[in-house]
Amino acid sequence: MVRVAIIGVGHWGPNLLRNFSDHADSEVVWVVDSDEERLAVVRSHFPNVQVSTEARDAMDDVDAVVVATPTVTHYGLVKLALEQRKHVLVEKPLTGDMASAREVVELAHKVGRVLLVGHVFLYNPAVRWVKRFLDGGEQGQLYYLSSQRTNFGPIRSDVGVAWDLAAQDVAIFNYWLGTDPIAASATGLACINDDIEDFVFLTLRYPGPILAHVHVSWLHPRKTREIAVVAERRMLIYDDMSLSEPVRVYDNGVRNDVRARPGYEDTFMSFRSSVHVGAVKSPTVVLEEPLRAEVDHFLDCVVHGGEPITSGEEGLRVINTLEAAQRSIANHGREETIESH
Questions:
Q1: The domain at 122-289+321-337 falls in which architecture?
Q2: Cβ neighbours of residue 272 closer than 8 Å, sequence gap 6 or more
């Protein structure tokens, strides 16, 4: 039985509290939050759980610490937990900059403790199905990926929307492609809070060459969680909002002989003969709660050892890209090279 402390029960913390409390292999013994009203709610629902406003109070009696607090607090809390030789699950992003992220990753290795970053979409069965599909090569040459991750709120005041939302897309792209981007360009605006972008348009250049585009926004009238994958022989849409058809595969492609044709398609029939539009298939994807799978994986790593899928190293790679995107925003969209971390 892994004894767990949950630090932060605001927006996402209650979901982590539920999953660790319900799990057969873990016991939540401490909940920490700076808000006394939130702690009162925890007391009413979990009378056997100890609560505090101070993270240090929870360090003596636990094996693992879960950090679900604002990004600006991640470094201090993760470092504290690792120094106390606790395993750590921290929500994304790992920290707010490369220097502090590298420090806690190295500390986790030094003390021999698990450090898992909550890039929860990598535990989504649909995302994992797409990974297997792309690895199979049926799609032919990959051209580009395009993601839209928008909603009306919640608006954060600690980090910009790229660090909050695009972090998920960068993690997914890196996972699908098996590599990091080599350059980033981005533009965005801070409409509500100074120096904190509310929407960002980000383009990543991967080896191949493959382009990946991300539109993230807190100021959008419709909630979307969708990624398009466009390739030579197959295309697909991953829609996280769809419970019945999270993945749709399009048997679409461009005829090979089109490249040899001079000029342009001057009739409708010649255009139609240059492309292939086939069936649309929805593969069977058995959906489960990604957060539950993430918690299962974390506890398995704690009990049996092993490197997490979303390790500290993986979190470091995402931050490396986000820092390049932030430099690009500061430089009015200039493409920034992403150096190896």
A1: 2-Layer Sandwich (3.30)
A2: none
